[in-house]
């Protein structure tokens, strides 16, 4: 490995990836779209990539190559902080009784279609020549083959994309998309290949006009760097407390479909940010998972209560815990939807009689209520934001406007 760094050469044998096909349950077995390809790389190759990444990151940090609005594949950056940025922007719009015109873009096969020449051009501009040379050797002349049982296909050349299943692939994609244009008067939120662009104004026409200007610049950038975004799978949402929606916007020559709700990084955002649709979606997901595990969690199950609780805490509870730092600001009526769901599951697992109070049940099982979890998550989340390395995340702890709406804010639970 020291010789590789000195010679700036990546061995050809380490650049061959083995692809296995994972069948998607319920799909036709004779169609190629029914299988999910998984790329396997040599373990020693990934070990060297880890070493190389440790040498690349200081340059990326020192030269501020990765923009602050990019929260993907960065240490101490998560999806919750990025969704929180979007929610704060929307909440500010609702407080001012304005219109927020937002576009959530879907990029097709983002990691598989990275243009190698374009990526190498950006690496050469931003990193030292020694790193550029070995990364060029790392990206070029890569091969792959498909293995099914004992049969293997011929070797096929990989002409585009960052290596799947690699250590360097995600950070190389972030470098490739680091110069995504930011338009004044709009907010840009990116997490890997997920992009959200928001613009607000008291006039819905002006809000969409500002958003359209940003989309035009992004579309030109996408075409220049050979990245394809699907307008049909993208979503345009108007967040407002007022009547009516913002005018439609386009990406290229295609109009983005409008919707009253969008799923962004696993969290459902409705027009008025009430969290009702997100909580209902989680309720259905919990019910489905509980039904699948009912044979182990039912009253007649021979499994011990401790093991039942272990299954609940590791499989079911994380479903509704995700994003609690954000949807914890929902109204009591919405939060009680999940509380009733949890009470029902716990009563079934513990096989308690009907006259036992839910409060006694939670105390006996040593499981906090949903509101207890919200308060605990709020305290931990606040501490994390105050020492966050990204200035955009630290600004989330500052109240920049007068609260007019009769709604909770997640930070209020700290007090």
TrEMBL record:
Q: Which positions carry the signal peptide feature in this UniProt record?
A: none
The record's InterPro entries line, in alphabetical order, gives: DNA/RNA_pol_sf, RdDP_mobile_element, RT_dom
Question: In what residue span(s) does the Reverse transcriptase domain sit?
Answer: 3-269
Q: One Pfam family for this entry, by name? A: RVT_1
Any single biological process term in GO = DNA biosynthetic process
Top-rank taxon: Eukaryota
PANTHER family reported in the protein's UniProt record: ENDO/EXONUCLEASE/PHOSPHATASE DOMAIN-CONTAINING PROTEIN, ENDONUCLEASE_EXONUCLEASE_PHOSPHATASE DOMAIN-CONTAINING PROTEIN
* Name used for this protein in its record: Reverse transcriptase domain-containing protein
Record organism = Leptosia nina
């Amino acid at each position: 490995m020291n010789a590789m760094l000195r010679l700036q050469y990546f061995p050809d044998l380490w650049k061959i990836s083995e692809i296995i096909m994972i069948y998607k349950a319920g799909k036709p077995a004779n169609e190629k779209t029914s299988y999910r390809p998984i790329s396997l790389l040599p373990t020693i190759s990934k070990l060297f990539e880890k070493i190389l990444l440790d040498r690349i990151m200081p340059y990326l940090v020192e030269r501020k190559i990765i923009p602050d609005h990019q929260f993907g594949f960065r240490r101490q950056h998560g999806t919750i902080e990025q969704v929180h940025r979007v929610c704060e922007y929307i909440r500010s719009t609702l407080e001012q009784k304005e219109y927020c015109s937002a576009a959530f873009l879907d990029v097709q096969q983002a990691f598989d279609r990275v243009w190698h020449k374009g990526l190498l051009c950006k690496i050469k501009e931003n990193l030292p020549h020694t790193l550029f040379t070995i990364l060029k050797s790392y990206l070029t002349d890569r091969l792959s083959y498909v293995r099914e049982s004992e049969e293997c296909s011929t070797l096929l050349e990989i002409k585009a994309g960052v290596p799947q299943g690699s250590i360097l692939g995600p950070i190389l994609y972030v470098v490739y998309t680091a110069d995504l244009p930011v338009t004044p008067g709009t907010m840009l939120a990116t997490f890997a290949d997920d992009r959200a662009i928001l613009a607000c104004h008291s006039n819905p026409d002006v809000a969409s006009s500002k958003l359209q200007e940003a989309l035009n610049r992004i579309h030109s950038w996408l075409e220049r760097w050979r990245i394809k975004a699907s307008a049909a799978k993208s979503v345009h949402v108007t967040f407002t407390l007022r009547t009516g929606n913002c005018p439609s916007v386009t990406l290229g020559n295609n109009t983005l479909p409008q919707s009253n709700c969008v799923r962004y990084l696993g969290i459902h955002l409705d027009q008025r940010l009430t969290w009702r649709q997100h909580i209902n979606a989680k309720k259905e997901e919990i019910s489905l998972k509980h039904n699948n595990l009912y044979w182990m969690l039912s009253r007649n199950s021979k499994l011990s209560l401790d093991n039942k609780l272990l299954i609940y805490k590791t499989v079911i509870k994380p479903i509704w815990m995700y994003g609690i730092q954000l949807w914890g600001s929902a109204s009591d009526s919405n939060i009680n939807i999940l509380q009733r769901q949890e009470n029902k599951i716990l009563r079934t697992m513990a096989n308690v009689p009907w006259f036992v109070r839910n409060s006694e049940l939670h105390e006996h099982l040593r499981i906090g209520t949903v509101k207890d979890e919200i308060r605990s998550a709020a305290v931990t989340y606040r501490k994390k934001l105050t020492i966050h390395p990204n200035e955009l995340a630290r600004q989330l702890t500052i109240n920049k406007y007068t609260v007019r709406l009769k709604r909770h804010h997640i930070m209020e639970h700290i007090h």
